[in-house]
Specification:
heterodimer; A: Rossmann fold; five-stranded antiparallel β-sheet; 10 helices; 11 strands; globular
């Protein structure tokens, strides 16, 4: 069953079409990877799906609710972990969680138990009362995922969840994302630059380029589609998105990615 | 859960974040106490001696203490938008906005946080005033009126600042505008001289400035025998309505900050 359906979703900025008539679906309980070069429109797409940004035209439905006309209902169904470091460094892990349990209408008598459960699930029980400022990058990410699952969202959006993390921390974040899906049947849509991440995490993937969704499928399907079953996903990426991985994006996006990486590292 | 209690829980959650941070790192509140001290110790003492500003039966220090209190709250509140831009750059704002919390609850929570911060700051000005022999009014009802004046003033200017932040969106531009705004707001008010002394164009401006009503309310509640320019009811009404107006506007603009 489709939990997410987009219908010619489009976002224009003055002279630029950031997302250009994107239509695709995500099925319940799958991990869907969104890849593409910098500036391909991934972040803009996620912003629209999480109701942060109104589409110029087209729409999407999440759990059957329209992101344009039922945005406040949609917000109850989803969780979101932005690319940037969004946990509050001056608060403890537990305080960060309790804050969101209030913003998400978790009943009073469940706030603490759900926060502790989320901490345990993300392997952060030992540091519950430590300030997030002292956390490592991987711990911060896990805490942010914990924050976004407090209200048991049907669908979770992760914008480059492993950017700036070392391989060990990355593996731990991957493991927890998969556990989240297996234990709570949460559907996950994540963006990434790493084909390795798609390979080890995602059931299906979509490649975006210049605002368009170029192709969607499982990694095997995509490899077959370029006529080479021995191909790696990097080959697939280059075949669909071209070689200009480094060219697009621009100063703002590069600066932001580095800032995030610096703060996590 | 009904709408009112849900709104209150979310607004209060924002206030709790603020008070937790203040408790952990009170440096900013402490350094913010320096400026009012300078105004009262240096400017206030000198002006009191020159007797250039006619404040009726009131000693000049008694006259200016409420003005300086309002000023210290204004100078902190007017930079509140900066923290909103900071939260946008961090991604905290985006997460607030993806939650089902009504935007107005988030904005009202921010406004109340500024109010709490203002009340804490006012302890310093009160202590300073006490040391300088200002005739403070300790009547509980009067104190309550003073607290209300501080909270409403802080809420108004912090939300006004949030509106600017939502329009300019970047820290650099905001800093420029914040600097440009503070002094005119301060001088176009009755904070350190009475309205009667002003040229007529400034009189008009000062009567449009919510700071004037905040100072007026503080003056009539904080000081023994403090004069009343406007009736207390008018002060309260002007402050409450202007705060409500900026909260409504900011709630509309707040989501745009994340785009």
């Amino acid at each position: 069953m489709n939990i997410l359906e987009t219908d010619s979703l489009t976002r224009r900025y003055e002279d630029l079409v950031a997302v250009d008539g994107v239509s695709f679906t995500v099925q319940e309980s799958e991990v869907f990877g969104l890849v593409g070069p910098n500036g391909a429109g991934k972040s803009t797409l996620i912003k629209m799906l999480t109701t942060l940004l109104a589409p110029t035209s087209g729409t999407a439905r999440i759990c059957g609710f329209d992101i344009r006309t039922q945005s406040s209902v949609v917000r109850r169904q989803i969780g979101y972990v932005p690319q940037m470091v969004s946990a509050d460094g001056d608060l403890t892990a537990k305080e960060n969680l309790l804050l969101y349990s209030k913003l998400y209408d978790v009943p009073r008598d469940e706030r603490l138990s759900r926060s502790l459960e989320a901490l345990k699930f993300m392997n952060l029980s030992d540091v519950a009362d430590k300030r997030v400022r002292q956390f490592s990058g991987g711990m911060i990410r896990r805490l942010e995922i914990a924050q976004s699952m407090l209200h048991r969202p049907k669908m979770l959006f992760l914008d480059e969840p492993t950017v700036g993390l070392d391989p060990v921390a990355r593996a731990s974040v991957w493991e927890h994302i998969l556990q989240l899906r297996d234990n709570y049947q949460t559907t996950i849509l994540l963006t990434t630059h790493l084909m390795e991440e798609v390979e080890s995490l995602c059931d299906r993937m979509g490649i975006m380029n210049s605002g368009k969704m170029v192709v969607v499928g499982t990694s095997d399907e995509l490899k077959a589609s370029i006529g080479n079953r021995e191909a790696t996903l990097d080959d697939v990426f280059i075949a669909y998105a071209g070689k200009h991985i480094e060219e697009a994006g621009g100063f703002k996006e590069a600066a932001r990615a580095r800032r995030t990486a610096k703060r996590l590292g | 859960m009904n709408i009112v209690s849900s709104f209150a829980i979310k607004s209060w959650a924002m206030v709790e974040v603020e008070t937790t941070k203040l408790r952990r790192d009170p440096t900013e509140v402490l350094t913010r106490a320096i400026q009012p001290a300078l105004w009262m110790l240096v400017f206030g003492q000198v002006m009191a001696r020159t007797k250039a500003i006619h404040t009726g039966n009131l000693a000049y220090l008694d006259f200016m203490a409420p003005g300086i209190l309002a000023q210290s709250v204004l100078f902190t509140s007017i930079f509140y938008g900066l923290s909103a831009i900071w939260e946008k750059d961090l991604g905290i704002l985006q997460k607030y906005l993806v939650s089902p919390a009504p935007r107005s609850a988030l904005v009202a929570g921010k406004a109340m946080s500024a109010g709490i911060r203002g009340v804490i700051q006012s302890f310093f000005v009160y202590a300073l005033s006490l040391c300088l022999g200002v005739h403070l009014n300790w009547n509980p009802v009067a104190l309550l009126g003073g607290v209300l004046a501080i909270i409403l003033g802080a809420a108004f200017f912090s939300t006004f600042s949030l509106i600017i932040a939502c329009i300019v969106k970047s820290r650099e531009r905001f800093m420029g505008i914040g600097q440009v705004l503070t002094m005119p707001l301060f001088f176009a008010s009755n904070a350190i001289y009475p309205i009667e002394m002003m040229p007529s164009w400034l009189k008009v401006l000062s009567q449009l400035n919510p700071l004037t009503y905040q100072v007026d309310l503080l003056r009539s509640t904080m000081i023994v025998g403090g004069p009343q320019g406007f009736p207390i009811g008018v002060d309260l009404l002007v402050l409450a309505i202007s705060t409500l107006v900026v909260v409504v506007i900011a709630s509309r603009l707040y989501p745009g900050l994340a785009q």
